[in-house]
Amino acid sequence: MNSLNAVLETRGVSKRFGRTSVLHDVSMTLMPGRVTAVLGPNGSGKTTLNKTLLGLVRPNAGDVLLNGATVTGTDAYRAHIGYMPQAPRFPENLSARDVLKLVLSLRPHAPHVAIDELVAAFDLESFYTRSLGVCSGGQRQRVNAAVALLFEPAVIILDEPTAGLDPVSSAALKDRIIAERNKGRAILMTSHVLSELEELADDVVFLLEGKIRFQGTLEALRTSTGGLTLERSISTLMLQC
Questions:
Q1: Burial class (CB in 10 A: 0-12, 13-18, 19+), 110
Q2: How, if at all, do strands 61-66 and 203-208 pair?
Q3: Tell me, what DSSP letter sits at residue 112?
Q4: Among 97, 112, 119, 132, which residue carries the largest CB count within 10 Å?
């Protein structure tokens, strides 16, 4: 893909842990106003790629760039990224209200979404002041989504975002993802639920054994593999590799 207008990208990123190569010469782009699905079997390097984009893992080779400027080895750029990990880890004695106020206090002068808007968007009101330790996994996941979007990030990284959500909450989150894409955000999603990626993704990056085996639009993937669905297309790719 053309990286000229990329918001966040990697160029030739490789990462080893000891003698094990986890990422090999990975170059990918996240474009504004598009949802990119990163796919691959367990052990393909998806988690390491996410952590590299977040600056939590430093590559052995290659660079991460934000708006064309290299940010490898720095951390201030993370203020432009909203991250929703697969498993939310909040102090169990805090409530959703406490968590949002605490996160907001860390960057008091940064532009942010109104708390009331996030409470309404993710239906937090019914448990807003309840300790998260007694909340369900789905309720904590909704707080997780609110925190990821709090500071109106240019890049949003979502790792299994609908895990544990009921159908109503899942639909609300998907609607929000579409709304953020329409605002021009660059969004990366990983999920084992291929049907939801097919619903939301514009672009696909397929990783296998730490290497990119396909990068392009969802339509181009279907065309190149002859698959009628994303699941069929990925299955064909795996058999070809």
A1: exposed
A2: unpaired
A3: -
A4: 132
The Cα-based distances of 34 to 64, 75, 216 in angstroms read: 19, 24, 12
Q: Which residue(s) pair with 229 in the sheet?
A: none
pTM above threshold 0.85? yes
Give average pLDDT by consecutive 10-residue segment, the chain, 241 residues. Answer: 82 95 96 96 93 94 95 91 92 96 93 94 96 95 96 96 92 95 97 92 96 96 92 90 78
**How many residues appear in the chain?**
241
User: 31: burial class by Cβ within 10 Å (0-12, 13-18, 19+)?
Assistant: buried
**Structural contact between residues 113 and 185, judged by C-beta atoms closer than 8 angstroms:** no
C-alpha torsion 185→168→163→151, nearest 10: 30
Q: What three-state secondary structure class fits 210?
A: coil
C-beta of residue 226 within 8 angstroms of C-beta of residue 238: no
Report how far apart the first and last C-alpha atoms of the chain are (Å, whole number): 21
Radius of gyration of the chain (CA): 18
- To 10 degrees, the CA torsion angle through 232, 26, 163, 86? 170
Whether 64 contacts 41, CB under 8 Å: no
The pLDDT score that the predictor gives to residue 2 is 59
Output the CA torsion sign for 177, 196, 190, 218.
negative
What is the Cα–Cα distance from 124 to 146, expressed in whole angstroms? 9
Q: How many CB atoms lie within 10 A of CB 17?
A: 10
